[in-house]
Amino acid sequence: MPKTAGILGGMGPKSTVELMRKIINRTPAGKDQDHIRILVDNRPQIPDRTSAILENGPSPVSMMQESAEMLEKWGAEMVAIACNTAHYFVEDIQKVATIPVINMIELLSNHLNANHTQGQPVLLLATTGSLKINLFQKYIGNFRLVIPPEEVQRDLIMEAIYGEQGIKAIGNNASSRKKVLEAVDSVAAQKPACVIAGCTEIGIALDGVALKIPVIDPVDLLANEIVERAFG
């Protein structure tokens, strides 16, 4: 029997569903019964991570800890979080869980080190909160991170994620995808070796889009890791 996976979800709901879809698509299953048991606490009421980091908004930690404890009580043997920004709090979550909380940003670091040359420029598209706290720099500082200019970050990336017509509000759409692609084009002169979809909504926007450089979505890496651990 494969191990049971737990998803600490709701950050956001679409990201949670996207992680489930990717786990299912990667599972070597010939019939329903071969798939991994996935326990999900889809809890959209968890306070916004970017607001907590940048604006001293309500902390998401207590709700995230409660969800992790519930998932373990229900029978989960590992906990996964689809939200990149939420990994700022991953150590707080691990404090209350006796099962492993998979660190998606560590998986990204391992992937980059295995597949790219250190020092290469890599384009990071993430929330402003993640950038302000150097979340990714902590793990992939051995690469030269290309960050969009401030106005691009504000008017394109954050609007694509959080805007009234953004992905969190209405799901993937042509307008948000166009904004993300414009952001990629804005730094093309720096010749990044790859694009890191450092926010799940960015990964959703770029899913199926053909770029001249590879897109690395940490949620893909997380889904792979869950499947490997479940059958390991």
Q: Could you explain the architecture of this structure?
A:
The protein is built from twelve helices and seven strands. It is of the alpha/beta class. It has two domains: 5-103 and 220-231, 3-Layer(aba) Sandwich (Rossmann fold); 105-218, Rossmann fold (3-Layer(aba) Sandwich). Strands 5-4-6-7 form a four-stranded parallel sheet. A three-stranded parallel sheet has the order 2-1-3, sandwiched between helices. Helix 1 crosses helix 12 (218-231), helix 5 (104-115) crosses helix 12 and helix 8 (150-162) runs antiparallel to helix 10. The radius of gyration is 17 Å and the shape is globular. The chain starts with a strand and ends with a helix.
How many distinct domains?
2
Number of helices, where a helix is a run of at least 4 consecutive DSSP H or I residues: 12
Oligomer: single chain
How far the N terminus sits from the C terminus, by CA atoms, comes to 10 Å
Structure summary, number of beta strands: 7
- Widest β-sheet, arrangement of strands: 5-4-6-7
CATH architecture tag of the largest domain:
3-Layer(aba) Sandwich
